[in-house]
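Write out the 3D structure for:
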Amino acid sequence: MTKKQRALEIIERLKKEYPDAGCTLDYDQAWKLLVSVRLAAQCTDARVNVVVEKLYEKYPDVNALAEADVDDIEAIVRPCGLGRSKARDISACMKILKEQYGGNVPTEFDELLKLPGVGRKSANLIMGDVFGKPAIVTDTHCIRLVNRMGLVDNLKEPKKVEMALWKIIPPEEGSDFCHRLVYHGREVCTARTRPFCDRCCLADICPKNGV
């Protein structure tokens, strides 16, 4: 079985296992996902979802958040960790959206990468979830699982994993595939305990079964 064949089979099995998998960060506007994904660094999505409620209650739109004092933003987002740097990035990012993009989030990948605190993972998440464009989000679950599944060979650097996956994952499947890897990584192919291979829908085709 080639890597591409295995990838296609894994995609189909995960679709059946997690048919409704999607982004676990709560948002109803593109700029809110931009904020949440910055806060999610080294923090759980569940905690971010709680914290942003308070943030948006005080600053309900891009303009309000762009004009907010960084110290006030930090006071609210501190529970997410790295409060100072995250508050600075969010403030700077909202200012750019306000001044250069009319309060909107840019729709081009390279433009997203220019925003403070936005890396490839964040940019891909926004491209896929907000704009419905091809995207591969190489978070820790994705990197761990695709190595175990034999879709990449001992690659740990997010960009290298992303580039390798682009060669074997159909573009239209990338975003949903990565969301399903998150669900599978949390529930079955876990990091902090031994993977639950006995109840894994991929056990018969996974080369790292039980490892």
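The mean pLDDT is 96.
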